[in-house]
């Protein structure tokens, strides 16, 4: 299945008149506040969010998995699916691959396919949270943190292999998320586990090509329930600092205890030039992997507020933007289209904040005014800008509508059948 320019044209045709009217009205309103909508639209056109290869099939829980129909069963079909998303929204021009779930057989063919769909290769992800068939050692009691040197060496070798695979595809970053931890007090030495993790990561760091980054993810609990070796941003930041200039902290929105002030973490890391990237998702309780912006859109906006300030006021390097979500209920492609829209919307809202007035209110200790300024931006309906950014780039005014109108899922089911299963899930 390929989405053509005439598909998009047809889908946009009926919406265009209404859309342009809304855009015109909004542009005039924003112009009165001194905001140039064209500049915002250009920034939205530039924003590209990588799609993880594991989000294209229905995810599952420990209780079960309900497969969708027409799922991509290999890396080729997964990249094709991202091509479909990108054709619709023009904001998803990269894939974040999971190894070993998505090891290419024919690198040249994969590179050609990705190129033909304007897809790049973002950070590659290693996996030492499960054992693979025939694996010599087991990660049951940890990988990079394991007390057993042979297990640590296996996990280090795997990460080096992931770097090699990424190099062949043009990736520039390795994301490491560790399940390592303990489920019971006393199960292991917390201090030694961190020390082992640092030493193992140092070995991996040495194998990084010159222009690569290593992104160290953190998570407070799950799958282990008493301690996680890299439990929070502080531990990740500590390791990133110890490792060196190519190491950064990766913030996964779902990897925080309830009510954590994530925007504060983001801005602190940017001040220290150590924020490497994002895994976007949303949640109510824990690592729920819900659609970005579906539960806490205001928090997402506040995070983008810090990001927008950080871009202009710190020297933090450009970020890897990735979605990390996958669940049972929705069509994964619809879920991803919604997630990318939510990210673009939060970015746009943050871009129209009156920074000068906000600074003035802060200096005058005018708390009520400061809140008004933020919420004025948040409560302005900027959806016409998102639609226009996609339209100007050759995408759909309403990507989800277009997806349904074109009948993408039905076509994929025709091509792949109803029982195809996404690899790795
Ligand atoms: Mn993640």
TrEMBL record:
Q: Sorted alphabetically, which PANTHER family does this protein's record hold?
A: L-RHAMNOSE ISOMERASE
Q: What is this protein called?
A: TIM barrel protein
Q: Work out whether the entry's keyword set contains Isomerase.
A: yes
- Keywords associated with the record: Isomerase, Manganese, Metal-binding
Specify one Pfam family: AP_endonuc_2
Q: Where is the Xylose isomerase-like TIM barrel domain?
A: 103-289
Give the originating organism: Belliella filtrata
Q: Which SUPFAM superfamilies match?
A: Xylose isomerase-like (SSF51658)
Highest taxon of the source?
Answer: Bacteria
């Amino acid at each position: 299945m390929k989405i053509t320019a005439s598909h998009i044209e047809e889908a946009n045709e009926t919406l265009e008149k209404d859309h342009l009217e809304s855009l015109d009205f909004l542009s005039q309103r924003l112009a009165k506040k001194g905001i140039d909508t064209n500049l915002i639209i250009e920034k939205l056109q530039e924003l590209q969010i990588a799609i993880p290869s594991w989000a294209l099939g229905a995810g599952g829980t420990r209780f079960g998995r309900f497969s969708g129909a027409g799922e991509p069963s290999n890396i080729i079909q997964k990249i094709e699916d991202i091509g479909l998303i990108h054709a619709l929204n023009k904001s998803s021009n990269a894939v974040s691959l999971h190894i070993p779930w998505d090891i290419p057989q024919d690198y040249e063919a994969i590179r050609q396919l990705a190129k033909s769909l304007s897809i790049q290769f973002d950070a590659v992800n290693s996996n030492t949270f499960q054992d693979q068939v025939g694996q010599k050692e087991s990660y049951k009691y940890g990988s990079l943190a394991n007390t057993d040197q042979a297990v640590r060496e296996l996990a280090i070798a795997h990460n080096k292999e992931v770097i090699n695979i990424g190099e062949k595809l043009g990736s520039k970053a390795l994301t490491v998320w560790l399940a390592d931890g303990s489920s019971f007090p006393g199960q292991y030495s917390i201090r030694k586990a961190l020390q082992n993790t640092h030493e193992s990561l140092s070995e991996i760091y040495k194998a990084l090509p010159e222009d690569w980054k290593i992104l160290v993810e953190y998570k407070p609990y799950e799958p282990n329930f008493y301690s996680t070796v890299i439990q929070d941003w502080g531990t990740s930041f500590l390791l990133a600092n110890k490792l060196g200039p190519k190491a950064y902290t990766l913030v996964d929105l779902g990897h925080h205890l309830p009510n954590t002030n994530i925007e504060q973490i983001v801005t602190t890391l940017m001040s220290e030039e150590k924020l490497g990237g994002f895994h976007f998702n949303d949640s109510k309780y824990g690592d729920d992997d819900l659609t970005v912006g579906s539960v806490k859109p205001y928090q997402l906006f506040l995070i983008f507020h810090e990001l927008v300030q950080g871009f202009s006021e710190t020297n933090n390097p450009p970020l890897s933007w990735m979605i990390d979500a996958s669940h049972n209920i929705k069509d994964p492609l619809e879920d991803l289209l919604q997630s990318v829209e939510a990210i673009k919307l939060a970015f746009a809202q943050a871009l129209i904040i009156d920074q000068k007035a906000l600074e003035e209110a802060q200096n005058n200790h005018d708390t009520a005014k400061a809140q008004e300024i933020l919420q004025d931006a948040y409560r302005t309906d900027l959806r016409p800008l998102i639609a226009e950014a996609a339209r100007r780039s050759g995408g759909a005014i309403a990507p989800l509508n277009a997806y349904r109108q074109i009948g993408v899922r039905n076509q994929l089911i025709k091509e792949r059948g109803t029982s195809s299963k996404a690899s790795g899930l």
